[in-house]
Amino acid sequence: MRFNEDNLKAYVVPNSAVKGSTPVLRNLTNIESLDVLLHPEIKTAYDIFWESAKKIPNEPYLGYRPFDKEKKAFMPYEYLKYGEVAKRVTNLGAGLMHIRLLHCNSKEEKELIERRQWSVAIYSNNRPEWMITEFAIVSQSLYSVGLCDTLGESSMEYIINHSEITVVVGILDKTIKVLRSIKKVPNIRAVVVIESTQDINEKLRASKPLGDSVLSIGDLRKISKDLGVDLYTIDEVEAIGNASGIKDFPPKPDDIYTILYTSGTTGNPKGVVLTHTNYTVSARSYGKRMRKNGVTPVMISYLPLPHGYGRMIELVITLEGGILGYSTGDVSKIFEDCQALQPTFFPGVPRLLTRLYDQFTAATVNAPGIKGIIARKAFSEKLENMKNGKGYFHSIWDNLIFNKTRSFISNRLNLIMSGSAPLSAEVADFLRIALCTEISEAYGSTETSATGTMQIMDDTSIGHVGPPNFGMEIKLRDVPEMNYLVTDEPKPRGEVCIRGKAIFREYLKDKENTENSLIGDGWFATGDIGRMNEDGTISIIDRKKSIFKISQGEYVAPEKIEIILMRHPLVMQAFVHGFSDKSYIIGIIVPDPTTFVPWAANILDTETKLTGNAEKDSGTFESLCKNKNIVAKYLEEISEFSRKSGLVGFEILKKIYLEHIPFDIEGNGLLTPTFKLKRGDAIKAYKEIVENMYASP
């Protein structure tokens, strides 16, 4: 492959190509070294927060919308200033140390606690207290572990035990979940409830989550005490910390900052151990982009903070002295929150951006009559201007059409970053025009501290995720089993490998997966398949491992779902599939004929009795698999089973195809000699069927 020297967006390291690998690419600012030039004095997350807190103590930082109970509506944003947050961070950090020391059983345990570097869980929705708790944990050289519900209750218990958590800080309903599981998480010594005493009492009386006998915080404390766990409110812990005399205990760069759990292909989630160096390098690599044109960044916070993308971007805003406005929690109303906040920066995921695209195109370029004709002309003219480097604004067409679409998010918007899954080209281009703003695709993973590549500023080309970000190196390596080779013409293809100081330390207590992923000399093998383009950008085209993302950024582990489905007596074999630009997953299911045929026949008999219409069906296995009514009832049956088995929404099949020919070793060749599904072959075999399933309404 020859690079286009006239349009090269990356630095190609000389003589770096070896057999089976492409040349190494770097950011254009990293020719001599991988040092990130922005904020070189920042070494830890502690530095990130205190740099801004000391410089701008009277500036707004964490925003929230109070709920007016009389009006039954959320009010305008109110803000905690950097200085206010700093006091709470110091007091809460000291308080967490103090209450943990109250619950040690030996001199040895006390010494371990005082050495720091132990974990505290945060189990909450996005709100100011999340980041207050995060930086409080950091202030004592402890590290956070974010808990979330998408991995399931059993995974919550696994994570608490695996990371040896003894203290949980969370909102009321989440801490109640922990208390209900306390026999399975015996290391928990204390829980800290984020809400105030008044809010806790009101919620307990309104919803009675623990029955009629628990209607106040006093009742809840008694239950907790009986379980061997002390319960505090966050205000109480801050007051304890203020009186304790415990000083900040700043972390070192190589100390653990956080452990993020990512769902594995099968089995339990993996704990990704990330240091302060990892995350500060990542935050610094993005920092320059957030303060566009010298404007203080303002960001809406809605992305889950136990995930890498959401966590990293909040550190970036803090580093840049910006404002974080927390959403009210209803994703369907996220743009109402944006209109109230007026952010300059919106961290997007393809599913949400595609929803915007559908809404805007229906009202503009796809509108009937003269309105659609004018909108299409406006879009075409603005698109040509943008591609010719004339920017995102047009005085006539914006006043006539696009200021309305822009104001749907924010009149101050200057950057949307799309991550977690690929964004389609037509969506990216249309939203750049409709929102009058830069849209930049980025690529990273939990293991890379959410950095890796990012499109360069105001790059309006499509179909790629940019060159290496600041401080990162990229190369591809052969994946012969999938026929992806670095010698492919016209462009090299292979597994994306990333190197830099943002790469994680290890998978917690998992030497095998650590060694499989950290392949030597600092390189992390991502499992993603990329294409290296002539301009030094990377395009993500496939996934080496079976785990994949769907458009909202959630990881789907198909084997996990298949195993659960095959527990159902009506299911013999299952193949689950999906795409990163689709919002749901589908399945190819081979029913068990011994149970399926009588079950299906009974449904047809029942329908005949109810409607008086005898549906013509030969009753054979093949004909029943093709019967639309049977397929619909079958989908209902396995969907309910999936929910009862603990699968969450995005893991439940939305469409199915019932296959009457079983997967086998010799006939269709879809099984290995050990009867495992050959996923790559199944994808090829059912390509047309899968495409038709997604194309159908």
Automatic annotation (TrEMBL):
Residues of the AMP-dependent synthetase/ligase domain: 71-508
Entry keyword set: ATP-binding, Nucleotide-binding
Gene Ontology CC annotations of this record: endoplasmic reticulum; membrane
InterPro entries xrefs: AMP-binding_CS, AMP-dep_synth/lig_dom, ANL_N_sf
Molecular function (Gene Ontology), one example: ATP binding
A family per Pfam: AMP-binding
Stated name of the protein: AMP-dependent synthetase/ligase domain-containing protein
Organism: Smittium angustum
